[in-house]
Design goal:
Residues 265-356 are annotated as: Head domain (RuvB-H). Its EC number is 3.6.4.-. Belongs to the RuvB family. α8 (193-207) packs across α9. A hairpin with a 2-residue loop joins β10 and β11 (324-327). This protein has a 5-stranded parallel beta sheet, covered by helices on one side. Strands 4-5 form a two-stranded antiparallel sheet. A two-stranded parallel sheet has the order 8-9. By secondary structure, the protein is of the alpha/beta class. Mean pLDDT is 91; it is low at 1-8 and 346-356. The protein has 3 domains: 41-187, Rossmann fold; 193-260, Helicase, Ruva Protein, domain 3; 270-354, Arc Repressor Mutant, subunit A (Orthogonal Bundle), CATH 1.10.10. Helices cover 47% and strands 13% of the residues. Bound molecules: adenosine-5'-triphosphate (ATP) and magnesium ion. Residues 18-19, 27, 30-32, 38-41, 71-77, 169, 199, 227-228, 231 line the site of adenosine-5'-triphosphate.
Amino acid sequence: MTTVNWDDESDDRIVAAAADGEDTAVEAALRPKDLGEFVGQEKVRQQLDLVLKAARQRGATADHVLLSGAPGLGKTTLSMIIAAEMGAPIRITSGPAIQHAGDLAAILSSLQEGEVLFLDEIHRMSRPAEEMLYMAMEDFRVDVIVGKGPGATAIPLELPPFTLVGATTRAGLLPPPLRDRFGFTGHMEFYAPEELERVIHRSARLLDVEIDTAGAAEIAGRSRGTPRIANRLLRRVRDYAQVKADGVITREVAGTALQVYEVDARGLDRLDRAVLEALLKLFGGGPVGLSTLAVAVGEERETVEEVAEPFLVREGLLARTPRGRVATPAAWVHLGLVPPHQQGSGSSGQQGLFGA
Ligand SMILES: Nc1ncnc2c1ncn2[C@@H]1O[C@H](COP(=O)(O)OP(=O)(O)OP(=O)(O)O)[C@@H](O)[C@H]1O
Ligand SMILES: [Mg+2]
C-alpha cells in the first residue's frame, strides 16, 4: 500500500479547502470586488450591507466586524469588500505575524482615519497583543510601554477611528472579551450547490472559459460547499477540456476530468474513499476504532481524523460514536455496496433500495 503524505493538505489534495500556491496567485483575479458580486451568504451579506450603509450615512467609521467560517468560504474576500464599500484603504496582517504587543502598536499607530485593519487568523495572536487590541478596539487608544522593569512607563497614544475586521476559522477559540468587542459577527456557511454554480459561471467568464449549465452543476456538486475548491476544480477541468476536448466544459467533460483527478460525484477524493471503503469492506460498516481504521488505510491516525473524517461526517457518511467509527446507510449507497445484514436476506428488493 502506498502511503501518501497528507500532512500539508494544501500541497496534495485537489479538494483541500486551504489555499495552495496556485490559488493564491489566481484568487486575486477571481475575487468579487463588491457586495453585489459576492455570491450567496445572504444573511451575512444583508446584515453587513446594513452595517456599512448606516455607517456611511452617518459619515462614521464602520463598527468592528468578525468573520468566522471554514477555509475558502470568502472571509478575506469579504474583508476587502468591506474596505471597498467604505471607500477606505485596507491594511492586511495576521495573528501569527503579531507576536509582540509592540508589533501591533506599530501597526495601530500608523493607521489612517477610517482605515480597515484586516487581522486574519485572529485566534492565533499572542496574549499581550490581544490585550492591547481590546483597548484599541474599544477606546481607540493604546498604551505604549517605554523602558523596562520598574522604570517602565506607559505612554497613552490616541488612535484614529478604524474598523477592525477579524477573520477566524475557529471562532470558539476566541476569548469572550475579544469576541464581545466586535459590533458585528458574520458566520460564513458552506455554499449550496446552486450558489457554487454561480461562482463557477462567474469565474469561467473571468478566465474566459466556455462552460454550460450542466457542466457548472457537475463541478459545483463536487466542490464540498467551498468556492475556493470550486474555482480550483474549474481550473483543472478547463485544462482537461483544452487538451482532451474542444475547450468547452459540458457535464461529460467535467465528469470525466474530475474522474481523472479522482474527485467523485460527492466531492470525495482518494483518501476519503479509502477510509470509507475500509470501514465498509473490512469492518462491515463498524463500529471500529480510529487506530484500527488508520492502519487499514495505511495512514496516520491524525490524517484520518483531521483530513478525511470532517468532510465524511459533514456529508453524513460517517459517524463518530463512543464505540468507534460507524458508516451511515448513505455511505453504503454512495459506494454502491450492500450492508451485511441485508445480504441474502431473501428480499431481492433490498438490492434495489441500496443499489448505485
Ligand atoms: N461569495 C463568493 N462569491 C464568489 N467567489 C467567492 C466567494 N467566496 C469566496 N470566493 C472565492 O473563493 C476564493 C477563496 O476565498 P477567500 O480567500 O476569501 O477565503 P477565506 O475564507 O479567506 O479562506 P482562508 O480561511 O483560507 O483564509 C477567492 O478567490 C474567491 O474568488
Ligand atoms: Mg483568507
